[in-house]
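dude i think i finally got it to work??
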Amino acid sequence: MEDHTATRVEARPAPALRRYVGSYIGFDLRGFPAGVHGGPPGRMLTTVISLSDPLEMAAGVDDGAPVNRFDSVAGGPMCRSVAIHHDGRQHGVQVSLTPLGARAVYGMPAAALAHQLVPLDALLGSLGAELTDRLRAATSWTARFAVLDEVFLLAVGRCGDRVPRVRPEVAEAWRRLAAARGRVQVGAVAAELGWSRRYLTERFRDEVGLSPKTFARVLRFEHAHELATAHDPLPWAAVATLSGYADQAHLVRDWGEFTGRSPTVWRRGEVLLGAG
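look at this
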C-alpha cells in the first residue's frame, strides 16, 4: 500500500448557528490512490469548499451524470451518492447543514436544491466567494472555523425575517425521523402531529425535497454506512440488523440504489476508506 497521510479536524459552529449547521470538518488527505469517492446521502446537506484544486463531482456514481468542477459546492437532499473524482489528494472544509436550516442560510427550502450540486456562489453570492478566499488565506483549522462562523452568521442575518419559517410540524417530523434513524412509522408520526399521512408527506416533500418514507430509508442507509466505514467494520449481516433492515438482502438492495454499487464492490473500490 502506498504511504498516505490523513488529517481530519471537527468543530461545532457558533451557538447561534447550531439550529442550522451541524458541524465543520477540515480534511487533508494525501498519497491515496486516485479514484472515485462516493459521498453518501444522509440527513444533512453537505457543502464543501476546496482549499486546493477544484472539486470534480457528479450527482451520481456510475450513472452517466456529468462531472463538473467547483471551487465550492453545496449539495441538496440526495437519494444517491455523489461521485467525487480525485487524484489521491483532497484538501478542504466540509459544512453539514440541516435541511431545515437551508432557509436560514440560503434563503430557500432544501427542496429547491434536491438532487443537485450547486456552486456555493450561486446561493451566497459575494459571501460565497469571500468565504472561499478567506478560508484559503487562513493558516490554521481554528482560523478557518472562525471564518465559517463569521460568514454563515452574516448569511443568516441577511436572510433574517425576509424568509418564511419552516412549519413546526415539518420540523418536528424531521426531528423524530432523524432521532429514530428512520426506524419509525411515518403514519404514527403524522398521527402524533395531528395530520394525515398524505398531508405530512406533501408538506415534508415541499420543504425537504424527499418524502418522509424516502428520508427514513436514507437515514437507515446512513446508519449502515457509518457501521460499514468504522475502523473495525462488522459483517454485512450484522450491519443490516443493527441499522434496521429486514435482512442482508434488503440492505444489498438499498445499498445498490443509494451508491450504484453492491456493498462488496463499493468496499473494494472506495480507496478513501479509513481516511479518518
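Residues 182 and 220 are 6 Å apart (CA to CA).
im so relieved honestly
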